[in-house]
Amino acid sequence: MSKRRSFIKSATALGAATLLHQRSWGNLPTAQNKTKIKPKKIKLGDTIGLVAPGFAIKPETLYLALEALEKMGFKTYHTDRIKGNYGYFSNTDEERAKDVNEMFANPDIDAVLCARGGYGCTRILDLLDYEIIENNPKALIGFSDITALLNAIYKKTGLVGFHGPVGSTIDDEYSQSYFKKVLMEPQESLVIKNAILKDPKQYRNSEYYRYTITPGIAQGELVGGSLSLVTAMVGTPYEIDFTDKLVFLEDVEEAPYRMDRMLTQLLNVESFLNARGVIFGVCKGCDRKRTTENFTLKEVITDRISRLGVPAVYGMSFGHIPQNATIPVGVEASFNAHKKQLRLMEAAVL
């Protein structure tokens, strides 16, 4: 049977599968019990499918994303579901999940890029067809709320995902550089260097300061993403196992007390206490001036994370910022907190 005939058959089946809210995915083995799956590398001329699994995307933003990808040398594809509006979502839960499932099942799609983030991904986790995803491994790229998809898919299938730019933010030289290095040029050892801050507003902004919280060197698999989403998955079947992992975190527009609350929650998760290292990106819009009634972002992060006693740093180049490095979830890496250096120890794609 040809790939296309197999896809048509699979697409018919998954259309019904996505309607089953109560499907028991919790019985699937986790990545710890499965072989790690790496997607194939992306090549110039490949077709990248765009999805909007959370918030709705404006037509002009979608156009700019398509234009940026085509300038990079890729073909693009999306369904009409991406253009919908269902309240603040791009479409209903069922349709958003169906879009993701079909992108993986479609043999003509080489990789899947989320057009934007925005709340909604946790609502579709039980509607994803993890069997189809596992049997059709492809690079899934995005950040912010996409954190939920990347880590849930890795946990359920072992498929490496990529915390990196979305379609609406990919038109940046630094972001494109690491997109290419990680996804298109497989290397057994790749150092992810921090971006040079050329914008004076960034250079003077305390949220972009880089500092070591706890010195040391650590090695482990990378997991994490948006702090809000990482904590939202605690206590669910999709909770991240932080044991012996390098945890990378970032967030946007969260006041210090809210960062405090989320980090305190993680400190009550047993596996987080067994993490090997913590790597913060830039938490844009999260700092406040020090007053008698307030702590700074640095004070909160240092207070909460230093008690772990593991190598930790703040200010690496990823997050809700223009310079957003591509970080693979599930790939072995080493981390030097003093040098503020992250090195991927294995290729993330085949």
In short:
With 350 residues, this protein is α/β, with parallel strands linked by helices. The protein has helices spanning 3-17, 59-71, 93-105, 130-135, 147-157, 173-183, 200-203, 227-232, 256-266, 297-306, and strands spanning 47-51, 75-77, 111-114, 139-142, 161-163, 190-192, 211-214, 217-226, 245-250, 277-280, 312-314, 327-329, 332-336, 341-344.
Describe this structure in words.
This protein has 350 residues and is of the alpha/beta class. It contains 10 helices and 14 strands. The protein has helices at residues 3-17, 59-71, 93-105, 130-135, 147-157, 173-183, 200-203, 227-232, 256-266, 297-306; strands spanning 47-51, 75-77, 111-114, 139-142, 161-163, 190-192, 211-214, 217-226, 245-250, 277-280, 312-314, 327-329, 332-336, 341-344. The strands form 2 sheets. Strands 6-14-13-8-9-10-11-7 form an 8-stranded mixed beta sheet, sandwiched between helices. A 6-stranded mixed beta sheet has the order 2-1-3-4-5-12, sandwiched between helices. Strand 8, helix 8 (227-232) and strand 9 form a beta-alpha-beta unit. Helix 1 packs antiparallel against helix 3 and helix 9 (256-266) packs parallel to helix 10. The longest helix has 15 residues, at 3-17. It starts with a helix and ends in a 6-residue tail after the last strand.
